[in-house]
Amino acid sequence: MAADSLLSGLLDIRAAAVPFLVAAVAFYFMVEQLSYHRKKGPLPGPPLVVPFLGSVAPMIRDPTAFWDAQAARAKRSGAGLAADFLVGRFIVFIRDSELSQRVFANVRPDAFHLIGHPFGKKLFGDHNLIYMFGEEHKDLRRRIAPNFSPRALSTYAALQQRVILAHLRRWLDADGKGGAFPIRVPCRDMNLETSQTVFAGPYLSEEARRRFAQDYNLFNVGLMAMPVDLPGFAFRRARQGVARLVRTLGECARESKARMRAGGEPECLVDFWMQDTLREIEEAAAAGRPPPAHTDDEEIGGFMFDFLFAAQDASTSSLCWAVSALDSHPEVLARVRAEVAAAWSPESGEPITAEKIQGMRYTQAVAREVVRHRPPATLVPHIAGEAFQLTEWYTVPKGAIVFPSVYESSFQGFPDAEAFDPERFFCESRREDVAFKRNFLAFGAGPHQCLGQRYALNHLVLFMALFVSVVDFRRERTPGCDDPVYMPTIVPKDGCAVHLKQRCANFPSF
């Protein structure tokens, strides 16, 4: 009898709680919708949003379609802006180039904070180059700049070419097994080895490189996953992988310091960096000052990871689009081949020198057009640290994530922008790189503009020069093969499948 009474009481409590829970959920839904509409103001956007999650499901399911829809909404409205909601965050998509420039120019504590990824601080950690402001940021960029000097780039060029040729040899051997050969993953693997070799040189053992590749793959998967920071989820594995990568690169910095202190010559990026860092540490010690900021080994490892992240997937994207564009434009391919052949031969037994790279003006124009036509990182997310008046009629609310679209900017201003036309950067009478500089945002703008853009363009030029010289190729054309998909940077939908065969009589070796 007592048990029956207890059960009856519990059922009564549950029945009474149901209306309360329904009312609480309804109230939460109403408050969230009102908050969203208050922040959205006159911007185009969904009339209602899914509580908390917002549009995250369609974004993860098909990122290309999601961001295309944002761009179309911003264009149709004439505002150049669109609003949406993602995992508890109000977002603003920016299509207009001048508004994107305003964001890039106002990266400071009381305006916009570059975040690189909507949940980047959880992935990369708080102490990261992209999260810095003001004098601290300027000072660190000043100290990093010599890593991309002409002397340093010349050193890297020889390393890059050895890695590229080794991978092209593997590609040719793999393609000989029959069928089209998708190059996206092989390009990614080649770029990872290039980054390891150029950035860390002799300080990574073969075993360390293998673990490095595994952890970087975990990071890549986590970038595109739901941001669930719990055991067993891809996002947590990515965060743990980043921590291991930073420790590994920090150990490389420690070993480089020891070698540079002993009088060794720089062989890779960390050597150039540590050579200058040791000089500054010694000058500080002689003056009785503490060591300069940001000279700790693991902190330097974190900055090196920033370089790796910036170079890796963006470069993979550009190499794939370059191959696709050269196949689609045989007249461009012929001119690149002729220019490279006039400067270098696969039978020379020597790498392409820095001077010869600089002389390949048309190939450089092709590289810039590849990056303009298909900017790898299409969006550069920032968070509003404070409310910011972006236009006369719209203020971005504090805490909103804004997404300047460098992809959309690439198709504004430039004449016949949809066409792949390297002449726009080659012909002296056009000089579109000057006339439409404010629309060419693939490397960003303002205080956080990419420090390594010369390295990135050199890598693309070197890859094209070697690829067209040693390989005959044909794109496997299928419907939609060149539709952009996010991986996490944009790449051809089919992974850029090609048929390859050796073009030169003797494969280069040096």
From TrEMBL:
Its cofactor is heme. Pfam families: p450. InterPro entries: Cyt_P450, Cyt_P450_CS, Cyt_P450_E_grp-IV, Cyt_P450_sf. Keywords: Heme, Iron, Membrane, Metal-binding, Monooxygenase, Oxidoreductase, Transmembrane, Transmembrane helix. It is an enzyme of class 1 (oxidoreductase). Belongs to the cytochrome P450 family. This is sterol 22-desaturase. Heme binds at residue 450. It catalyses: 5-dehydroepisterol + NADPH + O2 + H(+) = ergosta-5,7,22,24(28)-tetraen-3beta-ol + NADP(+) + 2 H2O. Its EC number is 1.14.19.41. The lineage of its organism: Eukaryota, Viridiplantae, Streptophyta, Embryophyta, Tracheophyta. The chain crosses the membrane at residues 13-31.
